[in-house]
Structures are given as structure tokens and as C-alpha cells.
């Protein structure tokens, strides 16, 4: 089948601060959690935590600078900047506005807020914009989730990291580049995993802060959440492969959302994809929310794995629920 006529011109990622091991995190916060379980089952060895003077827009801008350099264009050449994030700098302005300012760009901007699906939603939007005639679009996934989890939470605190990555998109032949981009949403799962306070339903107050309502809350069992995540990611990935006319096992590189190694492995197995084809960054970066897909894609690029003709399948699912999948054929 013909593709979407859009390719990646440059990629870049940025992980703020130094890597922090599980043992270091435990000492840092006086947090008692199962270090071996986090390492061996969830798959996290280290993560990055942004210094206090770094905001999400800073992370996004640093990643974009690298992507722009690799694409060989200037920030002033950009026609649009799109940022997927659930941890913006402020609640009343798009973080992408500050990304534009930090880059010295002059184009329109926009944020998407679908949590772990923020990047795939922004990517789909970016692809459509290039198809309508925009020449260069910068799409970024970045989050500083460490500031939105309770430091005394042994479940969520160890699994999140800060970071982001960016793609620069442009037009190409329809026989290469992005071949398929698929999205889904199902609002019935809105409160299965969410942050109760800070929005219009429950505005921030002394009470919400003292009650710890600004941290991530899961209202279903961990086992159930794993099952849901595997199904959602596998189903949308299968749909993308069906549309492209291939079996999932035929892809060369598989990039699932890096939330939990057991989930990632479960998705690969459900799709019939050998684990050897799965690209993993959770061991070094943990779960960076909207950052996981582009960070992992950038890692594959930097390791020299994205040779011409290779087929890459990306898939993710998020709270809400929302998610998506994309298939990319590396151009010649």
C-alpha cells in the first residue's frame, strides 16, 4: 500500500541531570521499595530526574535543538511545533509556546495532553499537517513526571523518569516514511489511573495538597492494569499492521510504550513479535510518559539500527484511555 508521504528528517532526545539508580532513589527520598523487583520485573535500572531549574519546555527545547541540527534546518524554518505532554510548565499556557521562544522559532504551536499517548497523538497531527502542505513540523514528547508523584509512594515514585525527544517531519515519496498512523480513545477508563486534583473538577487547595491528591492514583488492581495495557497496545498495533498488510512479526524493530517490561513483553508476545526485535530504553530512562516512544526511536537511530528499508512499529496506550500506533519505513 501507499504510505502517508511523510518522513523523519532528524531526531533528538534529552534526559536531564545524571542517571539515578534504584538504590540512590531509595536513599534520596527515604523510600522503601522493592529494588530488585523494579530492576528485574519492571525493567528499570536508572532514571533521570530534572533539576529544580529545568521545566518541561526546557527538556523539549533541548531535544528539538538536536533534532533540528540533524535535520539540517533552522528553528526559523519550522512551520509548526507540537508538544505532547501531561506535565506542562503552567496550567494556563501551552508549554510549546516557551519551546518556540527557547528555540527562536516564529511558527504557531500546540500541546496535546493524552498522557502516555501524548506523543503519538501529536505525531498523527504533525503527519496530517505535512500532508496539507507544511514543509517542516517539529513534534515532541516530553514530561517531568517526577514532580507529579508523591515521594513517599513506593509504587509510582520508582517507575517514572524525566525526559523527552523530538522528530522533525517533512514530505517524502509515498513508498517510504510513515506508512500508517492509527489512534483510539475510550473515555470509559478515565479514572482507572489519574491525578485527582489540580484540574477544574478539584482545583488545587491546601486540603488537596495535604491529602496528597496531586499524585497519580490507580483505582484498579495492578494485575488488571497490566491486562488492559497489553490489550489496548496490541489491538491498535494489530490494526495498524492489518492496514499496512503485514503481520506484526514481520516488522524489524518494535517500539512499545516503555511503561513496564512485563507489559512490553506481553504486547510483543500477543502480537507474535520476537523479543529480540523489541527496542528497550526503560532500563536507562524509566517511564517518561509522552517521551518514551521518541526517546526509544532516537536510541535506535543512535545505535545505527535504522538502516534503509527497515520497518518500525510503535504502539502506546494511556490513561483515559487513549493510544495509537504508527508504522515507519526507513527511507533510502
Verbal overview:
The chain has helices at residues 22-29, 35-42, 56-71, 95-103, 118-131, 206-210, 222-244, 261-271, 282-285, 292-302; strands spanning 6-14, 19-21, 46-48, 80-84, 109-112, 137-144, 162-171, 177-185, 193-194, 217-218, 253-256, 311-318, 322-329. It is α/β, with parallel strands linked by helices and 332 residues long. The strands form four sheets. Strands 1-7-6-4-5 form a five-stranded mixed sheet, sandwiched between helices. A four-stranded mixed sheet has the order 8-13-12-11, sandwiched between helices. A two-stranded antiparallel sheet has the order 2-3. Strand 12 and strand 13 form a beta hairpin. The protein is globular. The model has no long low-confidence stretch (mean pLDDT 96).
Keywords:
Peroxisomal Thiolase, Chain A, domain 1; 23% strand; 10 helices; 2 domains; 5-stranded mixed beta sheet; alpha/beta; 4-stranded mixed beta sheet; 332 residues
Summarize the structure.
This protein folds into two domains: 6-176, 3-Layer(aba) Sandwich (Peroxisomal Thiolase, Chain A, domain 1), CATH 3.40.47; 178-279 and 291-329, Peroxisomal Thiolase, Chain A, domain 1 (3-Layer(aba) Sandwich), CATH 3.40.47.10. 33% of the residues lie in helices and 23% in strands. The protein has helices spanning 22-29, 35-42, 56-71, 95-103, 118-131, 206-210, 222-244, 261-271, 282-285, 292-302; strands at 6-14, 19-21, 46-48, 80-84, 109-112, 137-144, 162-171, 177-185, 193-194, 217-218, 253-256, 311-318, 322-329.
Topology:
Layout: E1 6-14, E2 19-21, H1 22-29, H2 35-42, E3 46-48, H3 56-71, E4 80-84, H4 95-103, E5 109-112, H5 118-131, E6 137-144, E7 162-171, E8 177-185, E9 193-194, H6 206-210, E10 217-218, H7 222-244, E11 253-256, H8 261-271, H9 282-285, H10 292-302, E12 311-318, E13 322-329
Amino acid at each position: 500500500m501507499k504510505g502517508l508521504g511523510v518522513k523523519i528528517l532528524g531526531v533528538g532526545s534529552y534526559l536531564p541531570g545524571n542517571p539515578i539508580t534504584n538504590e540512590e532513589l531509595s536513599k534520596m527520598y527515604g523510600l522503601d521499595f522493592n529494588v530488585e523487583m523494579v530492576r528485574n520485573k519492571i525493567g528499570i535500572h536508572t532514571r533521570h530526574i530534572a533539576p529544580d531549574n529545568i521545566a518541561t519546555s526546557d527538556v523539549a527545547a533541548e531535544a528539538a535543538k538536536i533534532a533540528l541540527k540533524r535535520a539540517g534546518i533552522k528553528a526559523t524554518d519550522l512551520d509548526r511545533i507540537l508538544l505532547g505532554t501531561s506535565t506542562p510548565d503552567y496550567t494556563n499556557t501551552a508549554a510549546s509556546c516557551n519551546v518556540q521562544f527557547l528555540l527562536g522559532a516564529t511558527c504557531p504551536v500546540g500541546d496535546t495532553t493524552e498522557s502516555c499517548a501524548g506523543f503519538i497523538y501529536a505525531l498523527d497531527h504533525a503527519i496530517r499537517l505535512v500532508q496539507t502542505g507544511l514543509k517542516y513540523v517539529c513534534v515532541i514528547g516530553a514530561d517531568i513526571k517526577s514532580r507529579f508523584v508523591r515521594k513517599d509512594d513506593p509504587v509510582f515514585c520508582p517507575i517514572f523518569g524525566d525526559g523527552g525527544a523530538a522528530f522533525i517531519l517533512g514530505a517524502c515519496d509515498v513508498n517510504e516514511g510513515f506508512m500508517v498512523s492509527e489512534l483510539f480513545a475510550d473515555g470509559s477508563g478515565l479514572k482507572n489511573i489519574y491525578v485527582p486534583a489540580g484540574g477544574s473538577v478539584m482545583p488545587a487547595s491546601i486540603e488537596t495538597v495535604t491529602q496528597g491528591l496531586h499524585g497519580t492514583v490507580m483505582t484498579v488492581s495492578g494485575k488488571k492494569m497490566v491486562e488492559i495495557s497489553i490489550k489496548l497496545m496490541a489491538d491498535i498495533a494489530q490494526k495498524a499492521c492489518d492496514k499496512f498488510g503485514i503481520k506484526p512479526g514481520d516488522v524489524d524493530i518494535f517500539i512499545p510504550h516503555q511503561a513496564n517490561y512485563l507489559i512490553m513483553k506481553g504486547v510483543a508476545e500477543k502480537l507474535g513479535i520476537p523479543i529480540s526485535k523489541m527496542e528497550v530504553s526503560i532500563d536507562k530512562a524509566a517511564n517518561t510518559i509522552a517521551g518514551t516512544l521518541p526517546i526509544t526511536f532516537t536510541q535506535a537511530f543512535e545505535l545505527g539500527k535504522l538502516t534503509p528499508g527497515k520497518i518500525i512499529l510503535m504502539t502506546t496506550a494511556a490513561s483515559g484511555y487513549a493510544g495509537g500506533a504508527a508504522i515507519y519505513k526507513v527511507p533510502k
